[in-house]
Amino acid sequence: MGFWSNFTFFGTALGIDLGTANTLIYAKGRGLLIDEPSVVAIDRSNGEVLEIGSDAKLMLGRTPGKISAVRPMKDGVIADVDLVEDMLKHFVKKIQRGPTFSLKPRAVIGVPSGITKAEQRSVIDSAEKAGLTDVHLIAEPMAAAIGMGIPVLESSGNMIIDIGGGTAEIAVISLGGMVCDISEKVGGDEFDASIVEYLKKTYNLLVGESTAEQVKKEIGSAFPLEEELEMDVRGRDLVAGIPKTLRISSVEIREALNTPVEKIVKAVRNALEQTPAELSADILDKGIIMTGGSSLLRGLDERIREDTNLPVSVTDDPMTCVARGALIVVENLETYRHVLLNSSRNVR
To answer: Of 227, 250, 273, which residue constitutes the final position of a domain?
Structure first.
């Protein structure tokens, strides 16, 4: 083993999924070190960062006037460079323990496949300022496929749907490249926003982001359920201006989610139409694999299966695939050199 290999073994190489909703960081030999919301709480009067991650998310919709809990990532890319830098610094500091981090950690970061060159540069600059070195970027569908153990360097085609908080990425992967690649700005955040809007329009009930997310997880669906669900939803009556509780069914929430779900289904159709015939045969044989936290929406796989007449399955542990794949790549940069989108330095 070379010098770098020894340090890589002890966790100096990191695989990072810098997501709109959550940030995940893996290190070899130490597993999943960070899995926290991509949220930063700041004091608007002086710009001071108060909390980051899980503690900051608890403040969403509950903060006093001068405190804002914000998401520095939007649609999978950086919306606030300074806050992303602060967030990454915080997470890197949390995992730096002992002599294994006497050198700056190397990293591969999963980003949306539709990211621009300027956005790539912003991610790399923020990561380097946060204390990382040799920062490389990889498209999320590619990272997810590698994290699932799919042999992406082989000639056989594989279709991956990666749905996160801000984006849905649909890609057909073969020979280490993305033959077909569609990135839509739709994901878990739009699911939540659709629920907020539906309750507001239908019942004059105002709910916050956290409540909408809870409704989505408990009774949200994209396809009729064998047994429909119900739950009580608490919010503010916009007419009376007082707290109010309503009993809401999964049928209603499915209606609320139909528009963003249909965007994803349409993107999958477009990807299939653009796929070469030889690779289409592979997909017919293997089916479509879904990953990402928002792929866990009940019945979304069934909805896509009904529309495409293809086998569709959700991979095991879909929330961690991108970070796990990024770690595999950073540990094997020579092997995966050509799957990288960009890098701060030449691959050694």
So the answer is: 250
Q: pLDDT tens digits, residue range 181-224?
A: 999 999 999 999 999 999 999 999 999 988 999 999 999 999 99
Going by C-alpha positions, the residue among 196, 139, 187, 166 that lies closest to residue 295 is: 187
Is the CB of residue 264 less than 8 Å from the CB of residue 168? yes
Q: Which domain holds residue 282?
A: 151-186+257-314
Distance separating alpha carbons of residues 29 and 151, to the nearest angstrom: 22
Q: Are 131 and 121 in contact (CB under 8 A)?
A: no
Q: Are residues 301 and 169 in the same domain?
A: yes
Tokens of 31: 């597993």
Let me know whether 113 and 52 are in one domain: yes
Whether 348 is in a domain gets the answer no
Residue 177: CATH number of its domain:
3.30.420.40
- Alpha-carbon distance of 218 to 200, in angstroms, equals 19
Total domains in the fold of the chain: 3
Q: Are residues 49 and 137 in the same domain?
A: yes
Q: How far is CA 158 from the centre of its chain?
A: 20
Q: What is the pLDDT of residues 152-180, one digit of tens each?
A: 999 999 999 999 999 999 999 999 999 99
Write the DSSP assignment of 215-235 as a string of letters.
HHHHH-BSS--SS--EEEEEE
181 and 195 in a single domain? The answer is: no
Q: What DSSP string runs through 190-211?
A: HHHHHHHHHHHHHH-EE--HHH
The Cα-based distances of 42 to 31, 83, 131 in angstroms read 30, 9, 22
| Residues across the chain | 348
Q: Which residues contact 234 (CB under 8 A, 6 or more apart)?
A: 207, 211, 243, 244, 245
In sequence order, the 6+-apart residues with CB closer than 8 A to the CB of 106 are 4, 8, 12, 13, 14, 132, 133, 134, 135, 330
Instruction: Write out pLDDT tens, residues 82-129.
Output: 999 999 999 988 887 654 445 688 999 999 888 889 989 999 999 999
Q: What is the pTM of this model?
A: 0.88
